[in-house]
Amino acid sequence: MAEPFPLEPSLWAATAPAAVPTPPLQESVTADVCIVGGGYAGLSTALHLAERGIKAVVLEAREPGFGGSGRNGGQVIPGLKFDPDELETMFGNERGPRLVDFVGRTADVVWELIDKHQMDVPNTRTGWIQSAISSPAVGPIEARARQWQKRGAPVEVLDRRETERYVGHNQYLAAWIDRRGGVVQPLAYARGLARAALAAGAAIHGNTLATGLERQGGNKSGKWIVSTQQGPTVTVDRVVLATNGYTGDLWPHLRQTIIAANSFQVATKPLSDNVRKSILPGGQATSDSRRIGLYYRLDHTGRFLLGGRGPMREPRSIDDWAHIETMMEKMFPQLKGAGIDFRWGGRVAITRDHLPHLHEPAPGLLIDIGCMGRGVALQSAMGRAMAAYIASGDPLALPLPPGKVRPLPFHGLNKLYFQAFVTWYRFLDRRDAGVA
Ligand SMILES: Cc1cc2nc3c(=O)[nH]c(=O)nc-3n(C[C@H](O)[C@H](O)[C@H](O)COP(=O)(O)OP(=O)(O)OC[C@H]3O[C@@H](n4cnc5c(N)ncnc54)[C@H](O)[C@@H]3O)c2cc1C
Q1: Which of 425, 411, 385, 414 is nearest to 101 (CA)?
Q2: Taking residues 214-228, what's their average pLDDT?
Q3: Contact 41 CB / ligand 1 (< 6 Å)
Q4: CA end-to-end span of the chain, whole Å?
Q5: Is 179 a residue whose pLDDT tops 80?
Q6: What interhelical angle do 376-392 and 84-104 show, nearest 10?
Q7: Is residue 436 scored above 60 in pLDDT?
Q8: Exposure b/e, 205-241, CB count within 10 A at least 16 = b
């Protein structure tokens, strides 16, 4: 796997509070649970295990928040890509409504954690907006809002004029606003989770790459031994893999169950008051309905941030962000000449069915992977659910039933297919928007 793009060029690394020290693992230890991956999923699992008195050790290859959790758009979005009615049909009478209830509350978990642990995380909770760029997108957006309304969620459909008022340009035909959502400084939040997990009694080791996973003595009921690049091991009853878009080859074929696609972002220099007030004046974040969607917001430093799909490789030069910068000026001409302060990107894990996946391929090994670029809320809540499952053994504590590890056929080629799809989707988006 290619060396991941570093975290430092991001806006978030430049503006987050300092990280708590998480020194590398120096000597072999025993614990109840070893968690590989220090993003929202791993850190939330560790925090909630520690709060239950279960001894958890997190191994993180770089630093907490190094993966998607420290680089994302900070949009806190409840729900999944599928609508509630679809989820109920897909998962049946028992699992379906529970899953809908779970995904409807994921954003609440983020703010509960921020409040409970008094995290130093710039955030606003005035809603998340999904906007329709073309007429085929209007019906699905309205239906989505209606389905959530039926379930008591604080959401509304916005007509064209209202959407313009919220977003600041007139290129959308309609939108819906989900008032459960909002924005956070994502790296500050990851660091807040790490701090809270440590305070609750978990151990977190940064710069510690997990390199092997085996049963003690090769015995199927033996303890798990997680080995690390530096040598020390962690011996535990249970392991949680929470490596998502940064998954390597720790467990056979896991990496091949996802496409690790890049999402790239830019952030402007701080804007003048006048320009700032002309864009998303209510402080919401928005993602639009394009198949290759754009997502944007302002941050607490008064910068405008825009993200979208990048090439299927790590960035090479600033030209890799040029398409995003062009879109930015098309949507908001007042940003011409605003200047770009930060360009960065990260890996988003896409699954074949566009659902998050849980796996339990061996007793005591739980895997959480794939959140389609919507993991801030989801993975915070997933970590809490995984901790509850580990503590109770109740399969219904997990929002989804664990499935088999099924690699995508011809995974190496899938990147090429994916790139072809991206090109095709871009064409369809332009056609729907009347510019192809
Ligand atoms: C550019 C971008 C924008 C996004 N925007 C949004 C958004 O606005 N809203 C939203 O909800 N979601 C967004 N997402 C998705 C979201 O960031 C992710 O879904 C979420 O952060 C995933 O969290 P995680 O804990 O599962 O994994 P990650 O945060 O990716 O953490 C995985 C960690 O595992 C570590 N690791 C991997 N292998 C090993 C190993 N062998 N040993 C030790 N450690 C290992 C990695 O270093 C990494 O830190 C975005 C993602 C990107 C990349």
Answers
A1: 385
A2: 92
A3: yes
A4: 36
A5: yes
A6: 70
A7: no
A8: bbbbbbbebebeeeeeeebbbbbbeeebbbbbbbbbb
CA of 169 relative to ligand 1 center, distance in Å? 31
Percent of the chain at pLDDT exceeding 90? 87
Atom of ligand 1 nearest to the CA of 264: 1
How does residue 217 score in pLDDT terms, banded at 50, 70 and 90? Answer: confident
Does the beta carbon of 383 sit less than 6 angstroms from any atom of ligand 1? no
**Ligand 1 centroid distance, CA of 351 (Å):** 14
Rounded Cα distance, 350 and 149, in Å: 28
Using CA positions, which residue lies closest to atom 18 of ligand 1?
375
Nearest-angstrom CA–CA distance, 417 and 419: 5
Counting residues of the chain whose pLDDT is more than 70, the rounded percentage is 93
Query: What is the value of pTM for the model shown?
Result: 0.95
Residue 310: pLDDT band with limits 50, 70, 90: confident
What's the rounded Cα separation, in Å, for the pair 136 and 55? 51
Ligand 1 atom 17, closest CA: 68
Query: Which of 282, 305, 285 is closest to 130 using CA atoms?
Result: 285
The predicted pLDDT at position 429 comes to 64
Cβ of 286 closer than 6 Å to ligand 1, yes or no, is no
What the chain holds in terms of domains, given with CATH numbers, is: 123-179+259-349 (3.30.9.10)
* Sequence-ordered strand ranges (E) for 274-322: 285-288, 295-298, 304-309
* Closest Cα to atom 50 of ligand 1: 72
Distance CA 36, CA 59 (A): 5
Q: Are 58 and 264 in contact (CB under 8 A)?
A: no
Pocket lining: 299 vs ligand 1, CB cutoff 6 Å: no
pLDDT tier at 363, thresholds 50, 70, 90: very high
Q: 7, 10, 69, 354: which to mutate for ligand 1, most atoms within 8 A of CB?
A: 69
Which pLDDT value is given to residue 65? 98
Q: Residue 31: CB within 6 Å of ligand 1?
A: no
Mean pLDDT within 370-381: 94
pLDDT greater at residue 233 or residue 419: 233
Q: Residue 135: name the closest of 289, 305, 325, 335 by CA.
A: 289
Distance 67 CA to ligand 1 centre (A): 4
